Amino acid sequence: MSNAEQIEYWNGDAGKRWAQEDATMARLLEPVCEALLSHAAVEGSQRAMDIGCGGGSQSLMLARKLGPDATVLGVDISQPMLQVAQDKVADAGNVAQLSFLQADAASHEFTPASFDLLFSRFGVMFFDDPVSAFRNLRAALRSDGKLAFSCWQAASDNEWTRVPLQAALQHVPMPEMPDPHAPGPFAFADAERVRAILDDSGFGNIAIEPFTYHMRFGNGSTLGQTVRELAMIGPVSRLLTGQEPATMEKVFASMEEVMEPYYRDGALLMPGAIWFVTAEAGA
């Protein structure tokens, strides 16, 4: 999927659906953001960019972490998601240092050397040309600035995506296998490829560390309700697009069967495997 296709995708029905599910995603991924903020030691940064900010939950967390003297710019291509972010900030109040911009971070002409922190929670795996994108972002970074982001390890190492997909594929056709490096959630699964991309983009002191945690789907819901929630926000959602209701119910039933062992106290607890990546602007 090219950047043009990504822009269309995130501003169309998919972007609207993700906007509707933003509260669920914010709750689900809050522990990842907290851990990344701690891991990256972002304290002291004065002007930060949140790349692929989506609904803005991590932008708020970043702004609060950096304090009132710092500024945070959330950048995203999705107007529906940015509307959620704007509303969230308005509801939060007293976050004057946080603003948002609808733009493609891969090509937008940011003021050179105007940021000292580039931050992203799962927002950088969708670039059509990642080396070009990171070169553009590095140009916006001060010489003493840093980059910190999270990205998914391989889908096969993430039970939250592998298990429901295997269940769904019992009832829907196997999609055409994409290029593993094509823009998408798992495009940065290969840590050495990520290292090479950042090195080619001019970054230095690159560090890639694994982080695992149990993702919590559901909040006091039944297993059936939680499975349907996961199906709408996880990789199964694309497989279900255009499917007949009867087929979807078969998928849900199979998902319930294989995911029942992960269900405890009103929630699915499923292992997630992530990379925490940090780097410096370099010479």
What would you say the CATH architecture of the domain at 3-154 and 180-216 and 273-280 is? Answer: 3-Layer(aba) Sandwich
Q: According to CATH, what is the topology of the domain at 3-154 and 180-216 and 273-280?
A: Rossmann fold
What is the strand tally?
8
Overall pLDDT score? 91
Number of helices: 11
Question: Topology, pairings included?
Answer:
Layout: H1 3-11, H2 13-20, H3 22-40, E1 47-51, H4 57-66, E2 71-76, H5 79-92, E3 98-102, E4 115-121, H6 130-139, E5 141-152, H7 159-168, H8 191-200, E6 204-217, H9 223-233, H10 236-240, H11 245-259, E7 263-264, E8 267-280
Parallel strand pairs: 1-2, 1-4, 2-3, 4-5
Antiparallel strand pairs: 5-8, 6-8, 7-8
Helix pairs in contact: 2-5, 3-4, 7-11, 9-11
Question: What does this 3D model show about the protein?
Answer:
By secondary structure, the protein is α/β, with parallel strands linked by helices. It has a domain at 3-154 and 180-216 and 273-280: Rossmann fold (3-Layer(aba) Sandwich). The protein contains 11 helices and 8 strands. Strands 1, 2, 3, 4, 5, 6, 7 and 8 form an 8-stranded mixed β-sheet that branches. Helix 2 packs parallel to helix 5 (79-92), helix 7 packs across helix 11 (245-259) and helix 9 (223-233) packs across helix 11 (245-259). The longest helix has 19 residues, at 22-40. It is globular, with a radius of gyration of 19 Å. The mean pLDDT is 91.
Give descriptors for this structure:
single chain, 283 residues, alpha/beta, Rossmann fold, eight-stranded mixed sheet, 11 helices, 8 strands
